[in-house]
Amino acid sequence: MQPLFFTIESDPGLAKNLSQQLGAEIGKLNMRQFPDGESYLRVDTDCRNRSVIIFCNLFQPDDKLLKLIFLASTLRELGAKKIGLITPYLAYMRQDKRFQPGECISSRPFAKLLSEQLDWLVTLDPHLHRYHSLDEIYSLQSRVCHAAPKIAEWIKNTIQKPLLIGPDSESEQWVSHVASLADAPFQVLSKIRRGDYDVEVSLPEVERWQNHTPVLVDDIISSGRTMQETVTHLKSSVPQTAVCIGVHGLFSDEAYSQLSMQAEVITCNSIPHLSNQIDICSTLSDAAREFI
Ligand code: R5P
At residue 217, what are phi and psi to the nearest 5 degrees? Predict the structure, then answer.
């Protein structure tokens, strides 16, 4: 039997492609707000003994989370057999440590909430830094897929002599993977973050790469400061305009407009944005297929 596919407040284009690649039936969902602002939800497709996929992209997660929990628990009560989540971006993974006394390590309660309601989870390049695997905080079955092959393909097809640069030690896992697939040299810089908008990045060593195009690769572009700091260093030492590639372009405030004045900015379509040029739909659907 075909799996059922529900979407909660996520990119309709990616939802359509995912459901088609998974051969899923689109489930009917009635969702609205009561006059008092609370959420109303009704599942209008029979889900008894059906495998169910929920596509809910958890960037800006706080508003979506409750609806996701309501839907998963309703599906469970109505007899769904297996309930999984596809979220191209997995939120709260950067909160993996108590940086200041008393802080919430939000990745943990977030993981607990999702694990209580869902059987499986598919996501793309979550920010695994201090955690080495989702299993350290998630108790459901999970599959992490990687954008590196698609990013490497884009680089190979677009840039003649790339020099890949990871702006901080955390980015080494992504940049080294992409570099080996794209057969390109890479270097990793070091970063000190003093606040949300205050970062310092070490100087890249680019003397011997003067005829290469610097290609920065990172998992997340949020405030854009990490990329901007690195691009500023490069502008004074390399003639070519830098290319900034982010797996997930969150782009808070003016991040995109400021960064795109100094560099070419490219992202995967894990978060809908005008910088999307790398399609990761088949990466996600191949991973999800293992669970249905
Ligand atoms: C954190 O270490 C990540 O890998 C990114 O470097 C970071 O999230 C980028 O954030 P921002 O764009 O705010 O500098």
Answer: -130, 125
